[in-house]
Design brief:
127 residues, 6-stranded antiparallel sheet
């Protein structure tokens, strides 16, 4: 992630990135909004994040890629579709010299919305 002062909003975070990266980050942001219209924007761990019944996803710009963090369950559920990208248990790296798979991001976010909704429902029933 680019070293910079603490960010207070996603707008501020994106504005500090190179112009070509800004476009991709805005499109990822828009994709997440469309897939999770009730999600709230936040900054968490100095990265843009969306929350709805808990954190849905994070994303961040790095020198050679955009990191997308849909939690371990999001990676596991879509591991076949994500196999073309480097990543780890909770993250995937979209190289800056390749197209960003916005439709895949949308599907992952919708999955995470439903997963968080189910978890929140179970919690409510236990109370």
């Amino acid at each position: 992630m680019y070293n910079s002062p603490k960010h207070t909003s996603i707008d501020e975070y994106i504005s500090r990135m190179p112009e070509d990266v800004q476009d991709r980050l805005q499109k990822i942001r828009q994709t997440i909004h469309e897939a999770a219209p009730d999600a709230e924007e936040t900054i968490s761990y100095q990265m843009p994040a969306f929350r709805q019944n808990g954190i849905l996803v994070y994303f961040a710009a790095f020198k050679n890629h955009i990191g997308f963090f849909p939690t371990a369950s999001g990676i596991e559920k879509f591991k076949e579709q994500l196999s073309a990208y480097e990543g780890s248990k909770g993250t995937v790296r979209f190289p800056l010299d390749e197209p960003v798979p916005y439709e895949l991001i949308s599907r992952i976010v919708r999955y995470r919305v439903e997963e968080n909704r189910r978890k929140a429902e179970v919690k409510r029933k236990k109370k």
